[in-house]
Amino acid sequence: MATIEVPLTLMNLDGVKRAIDRRYTLIDSGQHDPKVIAVVNGKGGVGKSSLSSAFGVALAKLGHKVLLIELDEQGNNCEDLGISNTALNDGGTAQASAIIEGKPLAPTGEARPNLHVVPGGEELEEIIEELYCQRRAGKRHSDPDDRDAWMGIYAAALDAVRDDYDLIILDVAPGSDVLQLAALVAADYVLIPSKSDPSSRKGLRAVAKRFARAKEINDILQLLGVVLFATNSSATKVQEKIREHLEDDLKGTAPLFEQTIRHVEAAAVEARLHGKVPQELRTSKELSPPLLKSMKALAGDYQSLTMEVLQEMTARREKAEAGEGA
Fold this sequence. Notes:
13 helices; 49% helix; globular
C-alpha cells in the first residue's frame, strides 16, 4: 500500500478523501483484505468491552497479530487487560494525536503477545468535540464528498497501518454518534453485542440506522452478526424468543450467532478485578471451586464465539472470492 504523504488531520480532508479513494482502488483490484471489525451498540452495558478484550486475547493466542483500538472514553479495555496502571495506558493520547494532529496511529505496546493496543480514555473527548465541529462545518458544503469527508478520518488513519495486522478490532463507545459513524466508515465488519431487554434492542436499532448512513460512504461494510449477552444457558425457550425479536429488529440483515455469552456476574467481576479475560483464569488456583466452574463456562463461551466469528468471516471471504457478493 502506498505511503500517505499528507498528514491526515481533520482539517486536511483532502488527505482523508485520498485514503478512501485508495481503499476503493484496492477493492476494485481484488487486493482489499477485510480485517477491521467494529464492536458497537447504541447502548452501554451490553458486554461490548468485555467481548472486545476477550476476542482480542483469543485471536492473539491463535497466532493472529491483532490491533485493539478503544474508541471509548471509559477505557474499559485497560481494566479488562490489567494495564490501567502501566505505561501502556496513555488515556487516549496516542489516538488523539493520530486523529487530530495527523501523527501515525501507533499502539502503546503489547498487552499480550500479538495483542497490540491503542487505549481509549479522557483524551478522546477532544476527538469527539472535533468530529462534531467538522460535521457542522461539512454541512456548509454542497458537494457530498466534502460534506461527509469527516467520517473517513479513522479509515484514513487505519489505512497507513492495516497491513501490519491480521485483524483490527474497534471497541466503539455507545454514546457518540459521530464516533460511531467514523468507526463504521473505517470498518469492514460490524459485530453487535446485545442483551435481551428493550433498551438494548433499541440501541441495536440505533446502530442499524448509523450502519445505513455509513454504508453510503463505505459500501463494503457488512453486518457480521449479533452476539446475545447475559443469557441464562438453561433458558432455551427464552433464548429462542429473544432471537426472534432480534432477527425481526434486524429484518434478517445479519446473522444471530449461535454461541451466546452466559450471565455469570461473579466470574465477570472477578475477571476484571484480576485484569484478565475469562480464558486466562479458567485454570486459576486462586478461585474457589464454584467460581472456577463458572469461569471455565464463561471462557468456553468466548472461545466458541471466537471460532464461530472466524468461520463466518472465512465464509464471507470465500463467497466474495467466488463472485457471489457480500
